[in-house]
């Protein structure tokens, strides 16, 4: 099973992660070629709804990368980011993701959907000031409100070069872009980042959320994080909401919004629109 997985896709690696393995270099080369192309063949975004728990309204979407390799099929995004992050491909990839996401945000706005768009960014992007320039230019070009864009930053990303990252995040925040701490609770310095960065949102990691009904420790972590968000006046979004019991519990604790399979899996832009229309009817 293991060898079949490794031969057929890039989905699983253990501790022996190797950036220079032939498979990695191959993937990197193929990605670069795809991104050099104006249409970036194979590079797509899926969208997963974020739902306000109090009334079930769809408040926005998280854009999630889906890269389908000509021979290997869809490659796990986490694998792609790990591979690309150490090269200039990361920047190309993020710019492409931002461009597609903002264009989609604009299209939905024109069709009367008042949504916000969450985009994941990598350490690589936050270390260079050019990314902020790029983002500013794109927001302008598409005529979308900066406050409708939410950048999801993971803690590991923040550790790399705190001062430079901090400067760039501050600039983005000054533009009005929302700053979300992704996978909150899984890193080493969640609280420091919360104090130092202009955070507008905390995203509780799914590893705490999925099991909170049966795991009292996770329940304590989640409910305390929601209280913390309220005390600091920062919105809290729970990821990995897989069933109604979890949704109800989160709502009871006053969590602002949720995202997860209970509502919908990540899907194409077309499927997302159909889902929204249907969700509105039943809500
Ligand atoms: P993330 O930002 O924490 O995204 C949430 C992940 O949880 C997504 O995995 C999503 O498909 C998955 N998920 C959503 N609902 C549920 C649920 O109810 N249960 C469970 N078990 N999982 C759920 P995905 O799409 O495989 O993405 C994995 C990670 O890859 C993301 O984690 C993010 O860190 C990274 N990523 C994805 N797209 C991009 C991108 O465009 N740029 C960057 N830099 N990173 C990205
Ligand atoms: Mg995210
Ligand atoms: Mg997350
Ligand atoms: Mg996560």
UniProtKB/TrEMBL annotation:
It comes from the Bacteria. GO terms for molecular function: cyclic-guanylate-specific phosphodiesterase activity. InterPro entries: Cyclic-di-GMP_PDE-like (IPR050706), EAL_dom (IPR001633), EAL_sf (IPR035919). Pfam families: EAL. Residues 24-280 form the EAL domain. PANTHER family: CYCLIC DI-GMP PHOSPHODIESTERASE PDEF, SIGNALING PROTEIN YKOW. This is EAL domain-containing protein (Putative c-di-GMP-specific phosphodiesterase class I). It comes from Glycomyces artemisiae.
């Amino acid at each position: 099973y293991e060898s079949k997985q490794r031969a057929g896709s890039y989905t699983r690696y253990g501790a022996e992660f190797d950036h220079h393995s032939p498979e990695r270099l191959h993937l990197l080369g193929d990605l670069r070629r795809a991104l050099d192309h104006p249409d970036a063949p194979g590079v797509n975004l899926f969208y997963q709804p974020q739902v306000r728990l109090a009334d079930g309204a769809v408040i926005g979407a998280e854009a999630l990368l889906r890269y389908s390799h000509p021979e290997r099929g869809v490659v796990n995004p986490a694998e792609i980011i790990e591979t690309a992050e150490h090269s200039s491909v990361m920047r190309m990839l993020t710019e492409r993701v931002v461009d597609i996401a903002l264009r989609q945000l604009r299209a939905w706005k024109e069709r009367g959907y008042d949504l916000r768009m969450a985009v994941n960014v990598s350490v690589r992007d936050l270390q260079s000031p050019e990314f902020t320039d790029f983002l500013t230019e794109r927001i302008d070009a598409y005529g979308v409100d900066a406050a409708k864009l939410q950048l999801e930053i993971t803690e590991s990303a923040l550790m790399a070069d705190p001062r430079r990252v901090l400067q760039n995040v501050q600039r983005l925040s000054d533009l009005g872009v929302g700053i979300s701490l992704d996978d909150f609770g899984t890193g080493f310095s969640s609280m420091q980042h919360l104090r130092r960065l202009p955070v507008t949102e905390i995203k509780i990691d799914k590893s705490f959320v999925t099991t909170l009904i049966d795991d009292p420790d996770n329940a304590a972590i989640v409910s305390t994080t929601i209280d913390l968000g309220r005390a600091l006046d920062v919105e809290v979004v729970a990821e990995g909401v897989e069933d109604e019991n979890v949704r109800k519990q989160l709502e009871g604790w006053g969590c602002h919004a949720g995202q997860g399979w209970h509502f919908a899996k990540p899907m194409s832009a077309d499927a997302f629109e159909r889902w929204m229309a249907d969700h509105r009817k039943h809500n």
